[in-house]
User: Fold this.
Amino acid sequence: MKKILIFIAATIILILSSVLCACTNTDVNIENTNWKLQVAIRANIENQESEVIARNEFWIVEDTNIPVVDIILVAKDGIITIMDSTDTNKSFSGTYKKVDVIDVETIVYQVTISELSGNANVSTTKYNDGSKTKTLIFTLLKNDIQYTLNFISN
Assistant:
């Protein structure tokens, strides 16, 4: 009888550990991904006005005067580098630190880039056709100005 109880307990532990391992998604993090900017938005918190200040070639907007850019972001070992792939002299660097894991597909980081600080969320965007894309969204503040930078995995 004791052997049967041990076998049942071991089976339950094995099943639970398999389920828990299947739930972790080590692919959703800020590192080991080449990120490409989709859109950058600047908002004035005081007067609640916002504007798109940059976009990639696939981001559709009515105002065709908004600059089309090719901005990439790389994160490794706590350091963020954001650069214009067409002009290597245009780059910014900063730091990040993991502060929370919301669920298996959402991680929150504390971020500082130049004089801006705020949060970054890495998650998975799921589309109606069933496809998925890793998404990185920065919300950075400086005084009354908020910048939202939306990156997708490249």
